[in-house]
Design goal:
The structure is a single chain. This protein is mainly alpha-helical. Helix content is 60%, strand content 7%. The protein contains 21 helices and 13 strands. The strands form six sheets. A three-stranded antiparallel beta sheet has the order 12-11-13, with no helix packed on it. The protein has a two-stranded antiparallel ribbon with strand order 1-2. It has a two-stranded antiparallel ribbon with strand order 3-4. Helix 8 packs across helix 20 and helix 16 packs antiparallel against helix 17. The two termini are 25 Å apart. The relative contact order is 0.12.
Length: 722
C-alpha cells in the first residue's frame, strides 16, 4: 500500500523512512539540553535560597495581627497584648483626612484592646465619675488620672477624647453602623458629641471609617459594603463547617463516576459517546422548556416583571429566581448553546465516528496500562507542593521589612509631619517643642535596606519560578504518559510485546535524560505567561484611562499573547511526545512534531478538535451528573438524605464547591485520555510513513483503526475537493 500524505513532503520535512530496528521509544539515548538542565537546577537552588531568605526576614504575624502605634502586635501569644486582639483608634474622625490614603497612616493613636466600646462617652463626662472604670480600659496602659489634666491627657493622646459604639471588623474597631429606614445610625443615633463637646454627624464617622478601610484593604470601598461582606463571609464559613463531610462525599462520588466513565469508554465507547451527545442535547432542551415554563408562570404574577437592574445586587440569589427576566435570560442562553451544539454535530457527524474509533483504541491502551490512571495523583501532589511553597514564600516576602515610624502632628502646620522618626530617641529631639502634641507612631512595615528595596523584584522572581515549576510538572506528566502509550502503540503483538512497567520506565527516562528539554519548553511558556500577567496588571491600571489608543494597543497585545500561549502549549505537548519516543532535544523534537502534523494536516483537522470536543462533553456529563445529584441532596429533595443534610444559609456554597471539584477531578482523569489520543495519533501518522502494510513492513496500528481512519481521511479529502 502506498504512503498517503496530505501535503507535499518537501515543504515540511522528509517523511520517516522504514527502520526494521525501530520498536517504539528509543532505549539508548543521551541527555538533552544539558545547559538548560543546569540552569534549571541552579534556579531551583536559588528558589530554595529565596524561600530561606524570606523565611528569615519575613514574619506572617505582621499580616495576621494588627499593629498598634508602638509597633506591638495585637493578640499575639506570649506578649503583653495576648488578650488584646483588636486595634482601637483614639479619634476615628482624624482618619477622614484624604492624606490617610497618601501616607497610609491615620494620624491618631492606635491601641490594642480586648473588646470594642459599646456606648457613647467622652473623656470630659467620664473624668472622675463612675464611668471612669469602663472608660480607662481604652487609655494607654498605666495612665494615672491624677497625673495630668484633661486637656493634657487629650493633647498627649493618653486617652481618647471620645468613644463610640463599635464592633470588630478586620480585627479593628469600627463604628457600629446600622441603616434604619434608609437613615445611617450608630446605636440608634444620628448626632453625637465629640471630645470637644461639639455635635457631629454619624456621616463624619462613616467618612473616617471609609479612609481607614481603604488603607487596610487597598481599595476604595464603603464600610457598609465591607460589613455586609463580613456577614456573608461568616455565613459562608458556617456553611463550609456544617457541610464539609457532604462536600468530601460529593468529590469522592465524582472520582467514582470518572472511573466508571473510563471503564465504560473501554467497552462501549461508541454507544456511550453518542449517548453523551444526545444526552447533552436533551438536557439543554429540557432546560429551555423549564425556563420557558417558569417564565410564563412568573410573567403573570404581580411583581414578576420587575427587572434585575431595578432590584440591584443581593446576596440571596434566590431573589433573582422570582423574576421572569432571569428565566428569559436563561432560556435565551440555553437556546444559543443548543443551536451551537446542533450545528457542530451536523458538520462533524461523519468525523465523530473517527474520533470514537480513536477513543476505543485509547481505551484499549489504557486497559493494558491501568497505572496511567493513577498518574494524575502524582501531578496533583507535585502541583500542590509548588503552590504551597509559592504561597508561603509570597506571604513571608509580603511580611518582610522593619517597622517604620513617622511623626504624627497635632495639626497640619508642623514641618516635621510624616517624616521618619525613632521612638527611642524621639523624646530627645526638639520636634515635640516645635510641634506640641506630636508623636512618633508606627506607620507601616518597610525600610530602606537593600533587601527591601528589591522586594518587588523578589516577588516577580517568586512568581516566575513558580510558573516555571508548574509548567515543568505538567510537561513531565505529558512526557511520561506519552512514553507509556507509545510503548503500547509500537508493540507489534499487543499485549505480548508491551515492555514491563512502561509508565515507570517512561517516567525514569524523562527525568534522567530529558529534564533539560522539559525545562526548556516550560521556560518558553512561563515567559509568555509572565508577559500576559504584566499586561493584565497594566490593563487594570489603565482601566479608567481616557487614552483610547493605549487601551487599544494593550488589548491587541493581550490577544496576541493569549494566542501565542495557546500555540506554544500545542507545540510543546507534541514536542514532548517526540521526546518520549526518540529522545532528541526540544528544538529538534518540536520541529519534527510540527512537520509531521503539517504533513497530515487534514487528519489533524479531523481528529484533534473533535476528540477534544467529545472529551469536554464527558467532563460536562460527569460534572453535571454530580452537580444535579448534589443539588437535590443539599435542597433536601431526596427523602433518604433529608435528615442527615444540614440546613444551610446558602445552598450554592457547597453546591458550587462540589461542581468545581468534580470538574477538576474529571479534567485530571480525562486528560490522561487526551494525552493517549494525541500520542496514538502521532504514532499513527508515523506508522503510515514508515510502513506500507506488507508482511515485511506491517502496520503497528490495529486493523480496525487503520480501516476507519483511512476511510475518514478519504471522505475528508472528497469534501475538501468538492
Amino acid at each position: 500500500m502506498a504512503r498517503n500524505t496530505d501535503v507535499p513532503s518537501s515543504h515540511y520535512g522528509e517523511p520517516r523512512k522504514f527502520d526494521p530496528n525501530f520498536r517504539g521509544p528509543v532505549h539508548k539515548r543521551s541527555c538533552t539540553d544539558v545547559v538548560c538542565c543546569v540552569i534549571f537546577i541552579v534556579v531551583i537552588l536559588g528558589y530554595i535560597a529565596l524561600g530561606t531568605v524570606a523565611w528569615f526576614h519575613g514574619d506572617p504575624s505582621k499580616i495576621v495581627y494588627p499593629t498598634d502605634s508602638h509597633g506591638h502586635f495585637c493578640g499575639r501569644q506570649n506578649t503583653p497584648n495576648a488578650n488584646k486582639s483588636i486595634l482601637f483608634y483614639f479619634n476615628m474622625l482624624k482618619c477622614a483626612n484624604p492624606a490617610v490614603l497618601v501616607h497610609l497612616q491615620c494620624p491618631t493613636t492606635q491601641l490594642c484592646v480586648s473588646k470594642c466600646p459599646d456606648r457613647f462617652a467622652t473623656l470630659l463626662d467620664s473624668w472622675n465619675t463612675n464611668s471612669w472604670e469602663y472608660y480607662k480600659q481604652f487609655c494607654r496602659p498605666g495612665f494615672d488620672i491624677s497625673s495630668k489634666s484633661i486637656v493634657d491627657a487629650i493633647q498627649d493622646e493618653d486617652c481618647p477624647s471620645m468613644i463610640v459604639p463599635s464592633r470588630p471588623f478586620l480585627q479593628r474597631c469600627f463604628p457600629d453602623f446600622i441603616t434604619r429606614n434608609g437613615i445611617l445610625t450608630v446605636a440608634n443615633k444620628t448626632i453625637f458629641k465629640d471630645g470637644e463637646n461639639h455635635e457631629r454627624s454619624v456621616k463624619d464617622l462613616k467618612d473616617a471609617a471609609n479612609q481607614v478601610t481603604a488603607v487596610q484593604q487597598a481599595v476604595d470601598k464603603s464600610i457598609s459594603s465591607l460589613l455586609n461582606a463580613k456577614e456573608i463571609g461568616i455565613k459562608i464559613f458556617e456553611d463550609y463547617a456544617n457541610s464539609w463531610d457532604w462536600i468530601l462525599l460529593g468529590l469522592v462520588f465524582a472520582m467514582m463516576v470518572s472511573l466508571v466513565f473510563i471503564l465504560l469508554l473501554r467497552y462501549i465507547a461508541g454507544v456511550l459517546l453518542w449517548l453523551i451527545v444526545f444526552g447533552i442535547l436533551a438536557a439543554v432542551g429540557f432546560g429551555i422548556w423549564h425556563c420557558y415554563w417558569e417564565y410564563s408562570i412568573l410573567r403573570g404574577k404581580p411583581g414578576g416583571n420587575v427587572t434585575i437592574s431595578d432590584i440591584g445586587f443581593h446576596a440571596d440569589f434566590s431573589i433573582y429566581l422570582q423574576l421572569s427576566q432571569t428565566w428569559l435570560i436563561f432560556m435565551i442562553a440555553l437556546s444559543v448553546i443548543e443551536g451551537i451544539i446542533f450545528v457542530i454535530l451536523i458538520f462533524l457527524r461523519t468525523r465523530l465516528r473517527i474520533a470514537i474509533a480513536l477513543l476505543k483504541e485509547g481505551s484499549r491502551a489504557i486497559s493494558y496500562i491501568m497505572s496511567t490512571l493513577l498518574y494524575p495523583i502524582i501531578t496533583f501532589f507535585l502541583l500542590a507542593v509548588c503552590i504551597a511553597y509559592w504561597l508561603v514564600t509570597a506571604v513571608f516576602l509580603a511580611s518582610s521589612g522593619n517597622a517604620v515610624y513617622k511623626v504624627t502632628a497635632a495639626d497640619d502646620k508642623c514641618m516635621y509631619a510624616n517624616l521618619a522618626c525613632s521612638p527611642k530617641t524621639f523624646s530627645q529631639t526638639n520636634i515635640t517643642k516645635v510641634c506640641p502634641g506630636s508623636q512618633c507612631m508606627f506607620a507601616f512595615y518597610g525600610g530602606e535596606s537593600a533587601y527591601y528595596r528589591y522586594i518587588l523584584v523578589l516577588h516577580l522572581c517568586n512568581l516566575f519560578v513558580f510558573l516555571w515549576l508548574v509548567n515543568f510538572t505538567i510537561a513531565l506528566g505529558q512526557c511520561t504518559l506519552a512514553g507509556a502509550f507509545a510503548s503500547y502503540y509500537w508493540a507489534l503483538e499487543k499485549p505480548k510485546d508491551i515492555p514491563p512497567c512502561p509508565l515507570v520506565s517512561s517516567f525514569t527516562r524523562a527525568l534522567r535524560y530529558h529534564t533539560g528539554s522539559l525545562a526548556f519548553g516550560s521556560l518558553i511558556l512561563s515567559v509568555v505567561q509572565v508577559i500576559r500577567i504584566v499586561l493584565e496588571y497594566l490593563d487594570r491600571k489603565l482601566k479608567d484611562s481616557q487614552n483610547g489608543c493605549a487601551r487599544f494597543v494593550l488589548t491587541c497585545l493581550k490577544c496576541c499573547f493569549w494566542c501565542l500561549e495557546r500555540f506554544i502549549k500545542f507545540v510543546n505537548s507534541n514536542a514532548y511526545i517526540m521526546i518520549a519516543i526518540y529522545g532528541r532535544n526540544f528544538c529538534t523534537s518540536s520541529k519534527d512534531a510540527f512537520h509531521l502534523l503539517l504533513r497530515n494536516i487534514l487528519r489533524v483537522y479531523v481528529l484533534d478538535r473533535v476528540t477534544d470536543f467529545l472529551l469536554f462533553l464527558g467532563k460536562l456529563l460527569i460534572t453535571g451528573s454530580v452537580g444535579v445529584l448534589s443539588f437535590f441532596v443539599f435542597t433536601h429533595r431526596i427523602p433518604f438524605f433529608e435528615e442527615g443534610v444540614p440546613s444551610l444559609n446558602y445552598t450554592s456554597v457547597p453546591l458550587l464547591t462540589v461542581i468545581f471539584g468534580s470538574y477538576v477531578i474529571a479534567h485530571g482523569f480525562l486528560n490522561v485520555y487526551a494525552m493517549c489520543v494525541d500520542t496514538l495519533f502521532l504514532c499513527f501518522c508515523e506508522d503510515l510513513e514508515r510502513n506500507d502494510g506488507s508482511p515485511s513492513r506491517p502496520y503497528y496500528m490495529s486493523p480496525g483503526l487503520h480501516k476507519i481512519l483511512r476511510k475518514g481521511d478519504e471522505g475528508a479529502k472528497l469534501c475538501a475537493a468538492s
